[in-house]
Design a protein that fits this description.
There is one protein chain. The protein is α/β, with parallel strands linked by helices and 296 residues long. The chain has a single domain (12-279), classed as Rossmann fold, CATH 3.40.50.720. Helix content is 40%, strand content 12%. It has 9 helices and 7 strands. A 7-stranded parallel sheet has the order 3-2-1-4-5-6-7, sandwiched between helices. α7 crosses α8 (257-264). The protein is globular, with a radius of gyration of 18 Å.
């Protein structure tokens, strides 16, 4: 499933936070199957951020992998910018097949080992506003394109933190809300041809995570961890979902990427099999399949 193909040729995807990390990895994985990928973020050119990576570099790699990349600057704290990107997709492509809500603000305070009362309120709300509020705004715009065309997939990146404490109160709250948001979107999208899923990704060797390994207490032990994946692994899983004609059966559910990878025959880019951490980190609360509307 990880090998290059043209199965997503003619399909249009939009990935948030694609300057680097999981967003970039996802864009590259989709490109290997021929997709047109709109990559969004705030770091447009090399050198614009302290961490490596930029939209320009992602687009160059997307094109080299066999896809077509389109870079669009977008600040998730600006609703007008979000709307403008979807207007551009609708105008230039006439369709949208996949939205990957990946981006979330990660302020330095998130990984500090202090209580929430000793952290900046502004930092906390920025995590929430990018990870939940902006994701809802993006999904709202995506659905207004996808529902009329009768097809599409909205995927949100979450993690074991949805049920297991990791780093920070607002971080956990944001990911728990992400799972529930996709659950309820799945309810309301029933019968439209559009699906919504939340995906739990474990430790990922992104540029930011690699830096944290050097400075955050307790993280150095994960430097050579067998459970960690490359930033392209979740993208490979998302590509498999996008190519699955039965993906609607998963709508509304929360899934562990490692388990979906086993189902679809996906490995990491080095052919490693990434293990599920269900037994040690926790299991998703929301399964697919219950799409009954209820008024309570």
């Amino acid at each position: 499933m990880g090998a290059a193909s043209d199965r997503l040729a003619g399909k249009v995807a939009l990935v948030t936070g694609a300057s680097r990390g999981i967003g970039k990895g996802t864009a590259l994985a989709l490109a290997e199957h021929g997709a047109t990928v709109y990559v969004t973020g705030r770091t447009v050119s090399p050198g614009d951020h302290a961490l490596p990576g930029s939209l320009e570099e992602t687009v160059a790699e997307v094109n080299a992998r066999g896809g077509r990349g389109v870079a669009v600057a977008m600040d998730l704290l600006d609703d007008a910018q979000i709307a403008s990107v979807f207007e551009q997709v609708q105008r230039d492509e006439g369709r949208l097949d996949l939205l990957v809500n990946n981006a979330m603000s990660i302020p330095d305070s998130m990984t500090q080992r202090v209580g929430f009362w000793d952290k900046s309120l502004a930092d906390g709300w920025q995590i929430w506003d990018t990870g939940v509020r902006a994701a809802f705004v993006a999904a709202w715009h995506a659905a207004r394109i996808m529902v009329p065309q009768g097809s599409g997939l909205i995927a949100a990146l979450s993690g074991y933190v949805g049920v297991t404490y990791t780093y920070d109160v607002v971080f956990g709250t944001t990911k728990g809300a992400t799972d529930r948001m996709m659950r309820d979107m799945g309810h309301e999208l029933q019968g439209t041809g559009v699906s919504a899923v939340s995906l739990w990704q474990g430790f990922t060797y992104t540029e930011r995570a690699t830096e944290n390994l050097k400075s955050v207490p307790g993280m150095a032990s994960q430097l050579n961890s067998a459970v960690g994946s490359s930033p392209e692994f979740p993208g490979r899983v998302i590509a498999a979902l996008a190519m699955d004609p039965e993906v609607a059966a998963k709508s509304g559910g929360t899934f562990i990427n490692a388990e979906l990878a086993a189902e679809y025959g996906v490995t990491d880019k080095d052919e490693r099999t990434i293990p599920s951490l269900r037994e040690t980190r926790g299991a998703p609360l929301w399964a697919a399949g219950d799409t009954t509307w209820r008024a309570q």
